[in-house]
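Incident log, structure service

09:12 report received: a user says their structure output differs between two submissions of the same chain.
09:20 pulled the input from the user's history:
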Amino acid sequence: MDLAGLKVMVIDDSNTIRRSAEIFLGQSGCQVLLAEDGFDALAKIADHNPDVIFVDIMMPRLDGYRTCALIKKNPRLASTPVIMLSSRDGLFDRARGRMVGSDEYLTKPFTKDSLLKAVAQHSGRSSTT
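09:34 re-ran on a clean worker, output below:
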């Protein structure tokens, strides 16, 4: 999987999750952007224009659903893939994520493989084996 040069944003209030994602993505050549919450992310997204965005559902101040909805309502960002992150693997959470425009749902804790596979798939760089 060639992910070198892709800009990937990870929005999560958990430092452990942000750090894990940063390590996994960085080892694969991605440029990693980190944000602690939706407000932090929205300011950085405008400046950096990431290729793929991961957003945690449960965050203080601006949760993942509202963050995703704001990203998808911006015409310049509407086509940017947004992947929801949650420690719960429920049908309701998946459905609500789809309603606000998310492209996929990844359950935490994620593995390096599942994270990279999601980036490859949504960036159009998935490998055909």
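09:41 both user submissions now match this output. Likely a transient worker issue. Closing.
09:42 reviewer note: The chain has a mean pLDDT of 93. The radius of gyration is 13 Å.
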